[in-house]
Amino acid sequence: MIYINGILNSVIKNTESDGFTIESDKIVFNSKSCDIDLYKLRIYNTTLNVNDIVMNYAADFENIDIYDQNKLAKPNGAINEYYFDYRSMMEYNRNHPSDPLMPYIIFDTTSGPLGIDQQKLSYSKSVKLDIGVEFVNTPLELAYTSGELEELAKADGLWKNGDSPEKKAAAVKTYYKHHCPSWRSGFTADPEEIGHGVEMAVQGTSSEFYPRRNYKLKTKTKYDDGETSRIHIFLNRGPFADDFEADRTGVFEDPYIISNEAYNQSLDYYSDPEGKNKVIFDSNNPYKYNTYYIKNPNYVEFGKEKTRQDYWYMNNYTTGTTKFTMKIDYMESSGSYNMGFANLVKNGYSKHPLDDYNRVGAF
User: Fold this and answer.
1) Burial 291-306 (b: 16+ CB within 10 A, else e)
2) Burial status of residue 262 (CB atoms within 10 A of its CB: 0-12, 13-18, 19 or more)
3) How far is Cα 180 from Cα 57, in angstroms, rounded to an integer?
4) Average pLDDT of the chain?
């Protein structure tokens, strides 16, 4: 294998069983048609994987960023290869706030009500999974924290010189919302968890039989009991972070709180002579029998959250989407099948169409 600047450039296959056996105590470079300059030469008595190659490259050029980025690759014994660890990438972004890596999206098949029973991707179009999704647009996040979104919103005519700070803040929110914003699919009691509510299924019957698999994801669903179809897209970061936290905690608050003063004085209204906050007496109240309640100001009714969106807007103010397609391609560009990824597919899917071929050793 030949690596250039830490990147695999070409592969040469040796057909001899002892082709790399060295029987001399000398290494001779001799060519009548090739001139090279050797910067550094290392000789190993073992094989190096791609991770080792990149680490050497980072050390030679004293590039700390490449060294840190290379640590995002983790060994996976199940497929005998390295895989990209998104949790390490998130940690990298936290440690490099002024230079984060690319936007990323997380599909969590373990967040739905089926739990551990649906941890594998669907093989059939008929099997629809209820999953969690989180998308993070790292450049947009950086533009917000650096203040760049203010100028971008101004250039789009959303605010002008002399406008109030409130109007400027609203303009930044509008710009953020309509330019591929970061979002999450739902609420959980744990702020670090991704809520469910997105439907995931194989797109097209023919796709069931290909190693290149297309999945359709729909954010407009009705998974919760008694719920009408709703779009499960919530703006959870940047200028909407506080709103999202208020929505998230408010959904899990009790809708009513006990009014001891109203109970003791048998008042019809409590702390509001205009009667806008009426004291509720309900013998069927699930919280406490025969007790007066007033509405909890922190409660957020499910379906009426401030950060729940109608669409996912991708860099425009008029057209958005509630569904999209994800493609998982387990074929190399040359057309040869990578057995390491074949094992990954086998472990990741409930069933794989190439099992029969693997069993007879076709690859």
Assistant:
1) bbbbeeeeebeeeebe
2) buried
3) 35
4) 78
> pLDDT class for 47, splitting at 50, 70, 90?
confident
d(CA 158, CA 313): 17
Long-range CB pairs of 104-110, under 8 A, 24+ apart, other chains included: 104/135, 104/136, 104/138, 105/133, 105/134, 105/135, 105/136, 106/132, 106/133, 106/134, 106/135, 106/194, 107/131, 107/132, 107/133, 107/200, 107/217, 107/326, 108/132, 108/133, 108/134, 108/194, 108/196, 109/200
d(CA 91, CA 211): 32
Please enumerate in sequence order all residues whose Cβ is within 8 A of that of 363, keeping only pairs 6 or more positions apart, or say none: 337, 339, 342, 354, 357
What whole-number distance in Å separates Cα of residue 259 and Cα of residue 261?
Answer: 5
Give every CB contact of residue 4 below 8 A, 6+ residues apart in sequence. none
Give the pLDDT confidence of 217-236 residue by residue, as tens digits.
999 998 666 778 899 999 99
The span from the CA of 79 to the CA of 127, in Å, is: 26
Tokens standing for residue 171: 């303009």
Angle, to 10 degrees, between the axis of helix 165-177 and the axis of helix 148-155?
90
Return the beta strands (E) in the chain as ranges: 2-4, 7-10, 73-76, 81-84, 104-108, 129-136, 183-184, 198-202, 212-218, 220-221, 230-231, 256-258, 280-281, 292-295, 312-313, 320-321, 323-329
- Give the model's pLDDT for residue 234: 96
Q: Does the pLDDT at position 34 exceed 60? A: yes
Give pLDDT, residue 333.
41
Q: Which residue has the tokens 């069927």?
A: 284
The total of other beta-carbon atoms located within 10 Å of residue 196's CB is 26
Whole-angstrom distance, CA of residue 29 vs CA of residue 38: 11
